[in-house]
Amino acid sequence: MIHHVYIIDARDEIVVEKKFWIITVNLKEMQDFASRVKVARDTIIEEIGPIKYIGKPLGRGIVVLCAEGVDDDDTLREKLDRVTYEFRRVISYEVEYETFMEKVDDYVTTTLKVSIIGYGGVGKTTLVTLLNGGVPPTSYVPTIAIDIQKIEGARIGTYEVSTWDFAGQDRFRKLWELYFRGSRIILLVTDSTLENVLNSKDIIDLIRRKDIAAQLLAIANKQDLPGALSPQLVQRILGIKAYGMVAIDPNNREKALDIIKEALKLSAPKEEPVAPKPEMVFDI
């Protein structure tokens, strides 16, 4: 995710800061990076701690995007070029500054891959249907291999959400590792029965053995059924954060989206915003 956009003018003043997500950016670190871009007079990408910085000159100023380390460099270059081009139009008075600020989030939008995994019949496809605001299925139809869907109307920061619903049958499990690639979040769905929760520990072991870099959470589905284990007990058994869910209830769509948001918010402290400067000095 691109979580910050900065534009720095010829006086090294921050004239634009657009914040999309609750990630802390060290301003001195960012400005030191911008200084290196100014000296190089070329596009530079650097990873400093958990943040990937990409910047390029804009006249005597600098445009800097702050992203996550997992973001693709070529995609970031494309987004940076688009932001730079559009801001040049602002300076040339071809468009209003307010128009640029309203549209900049569209320029930096990328896809958030959410993998949904679990054994057959636990409600993975029903959860995807819920996220999309559709009508929950009334009968169990096994997913074959994988079902990929873009979640309409779901936007988190500069992410559009895409779900990957993995088939739970034995013959497809050897493909799970391949499908996990590029996942930002993995939701492990259980049916909240003791047997299924215990069996699901094998999936967690698989993910940890393969050292898959994704935020892993559990969905304790079917909480409406008699004998369902509480989310707290599921969490204790699995050793990962667990959320209760009744995926057949359409009223739970926002709750399901909030779980995805929570996965991105984990360990992401808030920061103090920097007010943009009203005057800008550029030489383009």
Chart the SSEs and their pairings.
Layout: E1 2-8, E2 14-19, H1 27-40, E3 44-48, E4 51-58, E5 61-68, H2 73-91, H3 97-107, E6 110-117, H4 124-131, E7 146-156, E8 159-166, H5 176-180, E9 185-190, H6 194-209, E10 215-220, H7 231-238, E11 242-244, H8 253-265
Parallel strand pairs: 6-8, 6-9, 9-10, 10-11
Antiparallel strand pairs: 1-2, 1-5, 3-4, 4-5, 7-8
Description:
α7 links the parallel β10 (215-220) and β11 (242-244). The chain has helices at residues 27-40, 73-91, 97-107, 124-131, 176-180, 194-209, 231-238, 253-265, and strands spanning 2-8, 14-19, 44-48, 51-58, 61-68, 110-117, 146-156, 159-166, 185-190, 215-220, 242-244. It has two domains: 2-107, Beta-Lactamase; 111-265, Rossmann fold (3-Layer(aba) Sandwich), CATH 3.40.50.300. The strands form two sheets. The protein has a six-stranded mixed beta sheet with strand order 7-8-6-9-10-11, sandwiched between helices. It contains eight helices and eleven strands. With 284 residues, it is an alpha/beta fold.
List key phrases describing it.
5-stranded antiparallel sheet, Beta-Lactamase, Rossmann fold, 2 domains, about 280 residues, alpha/beta
Offer a quick outline of the entry.
The chain has 284 residues and is α/β, with parallel strands linked by helices. Helices cover 33% and strands 27% of the residues. The chain folds into two domains: 2-107, Beta-Lactamase (2-Layer Sandwich); 111-265, P-loop containing nucleotide triphosphate hydrolases (Rossmann fold, 3-Layer(aba) Sandwich), CATH 3.40.50.
Helix content: 25-40%
Helical stretch tally: 8
* Main sheet specs: 6 strands, mixed
CATH architecture of the largest domain: 3-Layer(aba) Sandwich
Radius of gyration: 22 Å
The CATH superfamily of the largest domain is identified as P-loop containing nucleotide triphosphate hydrolases
Strand segment count: 11
- Average predicted local confidence, pLDDT: 82
SSE run: EEHEEEHHEHEEHEHEHEH
Tell me the domain tally.
Answer: 2
